[in-house]
Design the sequence.
């Protein structure tokens, strides 16, 4: 392009007549212009007026977040108010996805800081993936202080990571009564689908077993909420509204922490269960299933390795053996056989049978545990020395159905009604039961096994505890109850203990006393099978039992057998015999003989109880009189 | 050189509209700055001041001198665009700025204005009643260089804007209808080919424009948030300084490309319409000036400036209301940016210049 060859400002060379055609074009331009602006205006009208309300809602949705404030969970305490499961802050590491710049890099960094696998982080993210992007997804729960300080120091370089403080459980006395207390776990998809925990959201911790599950709604309280304004990074700008949470109610159990700890201690390194009841009310004073577990594991997240240990097929730590485990009652069942025999008039206290060490029935010899035999045996001796032959004979006279009737009357083969999920029923065999179950008739030979507690019958430790409690209290069957009272945050007691008698056993006081005398002898008599439980300052009554795990043609020394083939050891006891305060059932899986394996556990519990009594029962003149009367019945004490 | 009649024919209305836009711009940037934490409003006021001085400077001299300097302006523009290529400062992937110490010059902004001058000058010097396709080869060859230099930065929006400004002047200069139709047909024919040559990210951008919800956190994010900002203003707006979309950073670039959105959010349909009305008044005034000019260069120049403003306003508002893909065209005077303010104010100065001199020729007759 050449510049015009005209001198500067030589204006007269410029054309002066404007072509009218430009004016036409300008008019077109104006029309076009107005049309375009009309379109723009229409667009604004559409967005701001037609869609205005909807888009306003979206902008509110952008800036407002409703955050839930978790309510502190109610505490679980023992009968005297000592905290078994308390509350402490847990620090959860969470990811807010919408704030994450580079998810891959973040996952890698978090994995190294938290010492987690990247796959675990990814699966947590996947599980929480359905929630809105601003909702924090929990990656790791309950991190320790070291990890917390590491994370806090790096928080500015980890966009999208937040540390949430939520109320969690603490166990000031350690892992005690874990099966009864239960554990907390993250609510599962199924739980939500079935609305098992009304009001709970994904990521919430809910009671999964035991008291935590049964009283979840009381313990959980009501979450509060906080409506906040946030910026695009999810950062808090200001709080607009806050509704504080209402914490959950405290639950006072009937558990006596001292007895519970004594029982835990006695059961350490053993596999089995121990149940302690107050025979006069049905209060559950202690309940142990061993081995236990660390309930915090579930709150922190369980590794595959830990899960394997928890589900060990032999030790079954998650399984509450006290209420879910069913075992043949062994010789402890002789209490039932004896009660039935006395009440049905098959024998009286003085009826004697001769024990040569075996009982021939049909063409088979049924052995007594004592190879040489017990000689002449009356009821007292039969109980004290646990003579099998005596009970074979008595059982045969009774027949299985009469035995079953009394067993059921003592609450065996029935749920005790303890308010916990998954209680086992067990089995009390009768001819009718066999007909139903196996479609075959009852053979009398089977009655012999039933009479001494072997065979089909299966009972739970808590059933046995209730049985011995019923014997101790003179015949009243109480439902075991573990809640003393529930106190809401305002301090009002909303529920309190009421004993729940479920009936009396159809056994006369005199007959029960005859059995009680025998049970005292089991411990106190020099011939008794539970001498291991004898105490200086207290008279204990009890009965040992040994439940066969495999049929043994010839009795071998237990120590030489593989653990899993060894017999289960039982011991049921109450004390003090003159005015029973404790009823205890102990089962040691594959423990061998009840007297040597199970009785010492009960003894430790009695000893602890005795220590706690003031003044000592031995100081009471009333007690001295009672002991005298007991001694009159038991010449060998 | 200075003619006193210029002052007596000064278009005070146009000046008033520009001041009104400046007031809105400053008020709006005050809110946008609060959101971003950087005080853009004060810097913008400085630019307004500098812009006003330049506006007056471009009013004083006789605009017809520019035809003599069109080549110089063209060469300087090309040179500055080349300079950007070599020493330019790059911000978020685009190399558009020349650091000048006190500010970053954006030559592509000035290129809009030089396009107006150069093309007006060209058609002024090659007078014809109607132009055919052959007559377009030389101006097209002229503009292809700045177009590609801007396109390469990359700044597709400004590059297309330069073409639009050129096309607008050509239409006014008088293009045969047959030529218009054949150009449009050629463009339509070339479309699928262009699509084939587009880079994946460019295709994605177009796709997101057609369906922003497809990628709400990625490339569709800006459009969605901007629509929410504009729409949530409803009739009366959320109130000044109370636009949550901008103040909580949901709205990106609230002080530059999306300044209109925060205005619409805080002042509602009423405020947005008023702002658009003022732009419309300025543009109508410009067209009037183009019509009133008694000679072709003035007409072309005025029309070119009008086209420059018009396309920027339309593209920017369409972009922030989701009618067009996001291409990064500022809203004149309202969007923060020194180069843009200066370019616009010089353009306004030229309009005032042309308006003031519309009677001069008659008087000399």
Sequence:
């Amino acid at each position: 392009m050449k510049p015009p060859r005209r001198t500067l400002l030589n204006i007269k060379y410029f054309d002066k007549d404007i072509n009218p055609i430009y004016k036409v074009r300008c008019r077109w331009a104006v029309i076009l212009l107005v049309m375009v602006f009309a379109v723009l205006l229409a667009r604004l009208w559409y967005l701001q007026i037609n869609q205005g309300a909807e888009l306003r809602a979206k902008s509110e949705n952008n800036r407002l977040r409703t955050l839930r404030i978790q309510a502190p969970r109610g505490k679980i305490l023992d009968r005297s108010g000592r905290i078994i499961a308390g509350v402490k802050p847990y620090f959860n590491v969470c990811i807010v996805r919408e704030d994450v710049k580079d998810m891959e890099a973040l996952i890698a960094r978090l994995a190294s800081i938290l010492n987690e696998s990247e796959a675990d982080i990814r699966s947590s993210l996947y599980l929480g993936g359905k929630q809105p992007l601003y909702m924090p997804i929990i990656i790791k729960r309950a991190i320790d202080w070291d990890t917390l300080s590491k994370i806090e120091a790096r928080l500015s370089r980890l966009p999208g990571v937040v540390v949430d403080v939520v109320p969690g459980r603490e166990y000031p006395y350690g892992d005690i009564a874990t099966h009864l207390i239960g554990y907390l776990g993250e609510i599962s998809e199924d739980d939500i689908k079935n609305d098992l925990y009304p009001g709970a959201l994904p990521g919430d911790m809910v009671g999964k077993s035991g008291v935590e599950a049964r009283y979840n709604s009381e313990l959980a309280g009501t979450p509060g909420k906080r409506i906040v304004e946030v910026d695009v990074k999810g950062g808090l700008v200001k709080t607009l509204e806050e509704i504080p949470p209402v914490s959950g109610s405290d639950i006072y159990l009937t558990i006596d922490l001292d007895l519970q700890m004594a029982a835990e201690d006695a059961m350490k390194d053993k596999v089995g269960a121990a149940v302690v009841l107050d025979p006069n009310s049905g209060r559950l004073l202690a309940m142990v299933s061993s081995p236990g577990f660390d309930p915090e594991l579930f709150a922190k997240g369980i590794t595959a390795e830990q899960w394997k240990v928890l589900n060990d097929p032999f030790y079954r730590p998650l399984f509450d053996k006290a209420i879910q485990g069913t075992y043949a009652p062994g010789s402890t069942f002789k209490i039932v056989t004896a009660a039935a025999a006395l009440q049905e008039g098959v024998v009286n206290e003085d009826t004697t049978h001769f024990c040569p060490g075996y009982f021939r029935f049909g063409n088979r010899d049924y052995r007594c545990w004592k190879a040489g035999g017990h000689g002449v045996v009356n009821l007292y001796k039969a109980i004290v020395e646990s003579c099998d032959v005596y009970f074979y004979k008595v059982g045969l006279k009774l027949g299985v159905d009469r035995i079953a009737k009394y067993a059921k009357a003592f609450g065996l083969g029935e749920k005790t009604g303890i308010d916990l999920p998954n209680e086992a029923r067990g089995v009390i065999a009768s001819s009718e039961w066999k007909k139903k179950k196996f479609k075959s008739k009852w053979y009398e030979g089977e009655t012999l096994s039933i009479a001494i507690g072997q065979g089909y019958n299966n009972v739970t430790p808590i059933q046995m505890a209730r049985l011995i409690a019923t014997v101790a209290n003179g015949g009243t069957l109480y439902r075991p109850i573990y809640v003393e009272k529930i106190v809401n945050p305002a301090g009002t007691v909303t529920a309190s203990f009421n004993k729940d008698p479920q009936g009396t056993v159809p056994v006369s006081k005199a007959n029960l006393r005859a059995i009680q005398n025998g049970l005292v002898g089991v411990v106190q008599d020099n011939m008794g099978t539970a001498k291991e439980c004898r105490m200086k300052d207290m008279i204990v009554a009890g009965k040992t039992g040994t439940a066969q795990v495999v049929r043994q043609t010839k009795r071998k020394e237990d120590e030489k057998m593989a653990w899993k083939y060894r017999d289960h050891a039982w011991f049921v006891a109450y004390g003090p015999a003159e005015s029973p305060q404790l009823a205890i059932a102990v089962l040691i899986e594959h423990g061998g003989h009840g007297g040597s394996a199970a009785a010492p556990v009960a003894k430790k519990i009695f000893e602890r109880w005795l220590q706690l009594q003031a003044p000592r029962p031995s100081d009471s003149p009333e007690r001295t009189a009672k002991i005298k009367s007991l001694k009159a019945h038991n010449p060998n004490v | 050189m200075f003619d006193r009649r210029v002052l007596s024919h000064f278009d005070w209305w146009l000046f008033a509209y520009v001041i009104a836009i400046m007031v809105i711009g400053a008020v709006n940037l005050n809110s946008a700055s609060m959101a971003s934490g950087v005080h853009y409003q004060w810097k913008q006021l400085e630019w307004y001041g500098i812009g006003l001085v330049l506006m007056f400077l471009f009013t004083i001299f006789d605009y017809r001198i520019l035809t003599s300097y069109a080549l110089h302006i063209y060469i300087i523009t090309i040179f500055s665009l080349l300079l950007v290529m070599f020493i330019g400062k790059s911000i978020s992937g685009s190399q558009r700025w020349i650091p000048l110490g006190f500010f970053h010059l954006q030559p592509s902004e000035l290129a809009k204005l030089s396009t107006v001058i150069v093309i007006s000058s060209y058609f002024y010097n090659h007078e014809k009643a109607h132009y055919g396709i052959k007559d377009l080869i030389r101006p097209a060859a002229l503009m292809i260089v700045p177009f590609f230099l801007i396109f390469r930065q990359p700044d597709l929006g400004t590059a297309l804007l330069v073409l639009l400004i050129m096309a607008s002047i050509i239409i006014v200069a008088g293009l045969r209808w047959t030529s218009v139709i054949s150009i449009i047909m050629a463009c339509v024919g070339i479309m699928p080919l262009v699509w084939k040559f587009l880079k994946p990210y460019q295709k994605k951008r177009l796709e997101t424009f057609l369906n922003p919800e497809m990628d709400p956190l990625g490339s569709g994010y800006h459009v969605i948030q901007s629509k929410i900002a504009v729409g949530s203003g409803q009739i009366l707006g959320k109130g000044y300084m109370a636009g949550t979309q901008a103040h909580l950073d949901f709205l990106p670039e609230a002080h530059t490309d999306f300044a209109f959105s925060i205005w619409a959010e805080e002042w509602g349909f009423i405020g947005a319409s008023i702002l658009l009305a003022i732009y419309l008044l300025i543009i109508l005034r410009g067209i009037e000036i183009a019509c009133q000019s008694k000679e072709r260069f003035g007409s072309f120049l005025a029309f070119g400036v009008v086209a420059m403003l018009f396309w920027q306003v339309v593209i920017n508002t369409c972009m922030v209301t989701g009618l067009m893909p996001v291409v990064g065209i500022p809203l004149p005077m309202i969007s923060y940016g020194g180069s843009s303010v200066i370019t616009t104010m010089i353009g306004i100065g030229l309009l005032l210049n042309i308006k003031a001199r519309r009677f001069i020729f008659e008087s000399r007759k």
Notes: Chain B has one domain: 4-364. Chain B has a mean pLDDT of 86.
